[in-house]
Every structure is written in C-alpha cells, then in structure tokens.
C-alpha cells in the first residue's frame, strides 16, 4: 500500500471520528455549563446534579444521531476500507 493512501485514509477516519463525536460532546459541554451556572446561582453543590443531567442529555443525543453515525461509518468502511483490502 502506498504511503499517501495510508495517510489519506487515516485523515478521513480521524475526520469522520471528529464529526461523529461532535454532537455528543457539544451537548455535554452545554449541559455542563448550564448545570454549573445553576449550581453557582443556587449554591447547591450536589455531585449527582452535575453527572445525571449530562448523562441523560448525552444518551438522548446519541440515540437521536445513532442512525447517522452508523450510516457514516458503514459508508466509510464499504467505500474506502473494503476496496483497500480487496486491492491488497
């Protein structure tokens, strides 16, 4: 396998991983900021208050974007990885 093909495939895989992780991480960031602001305003320092809302928000977003994630990974695998394996 040519070195440039390897690096191009790696670049595409990292880009796809970034695009797949972005919605979940963005929601975790927003939920964390919201809960942190709420805790700062009310002086409530409960540890589960920071964990549970972020977990619920991330699970909801993951469930909503699961189809897109699967299609993206399947398309990358069948369109890029399988032809590379077949050509070797």
UniProtKB/TrEMBL annotation:
Top-rank taxon, per record: Bacteria
A biological-process GO annotation: protein secretion
GO CC field: plasma membrane
Protein localization: Cell membrane
Membrane association type: Multi-pass membrane protein
Alphabetical UniProt keywords: Cell membrane, Cell projection, Cilium, Flagellum, Membrane, Transmembrane, Transmembrane helix
Transmembrane segment boundaries: 12-38, 50-69
UniProt key word ATP-binding: no
Keyword Transmembrane helix annotated: yes
Family: Belongs to the FliQ/MopD/SpaQ family.
UniProt xrefs under PANTHER family: FLAGELLAR BIOSYNTHETIC PROTEIN FLIQ
Protein name: Flagellar biosynthetic protein FliQ
Biological source species: Celeribacter indicus
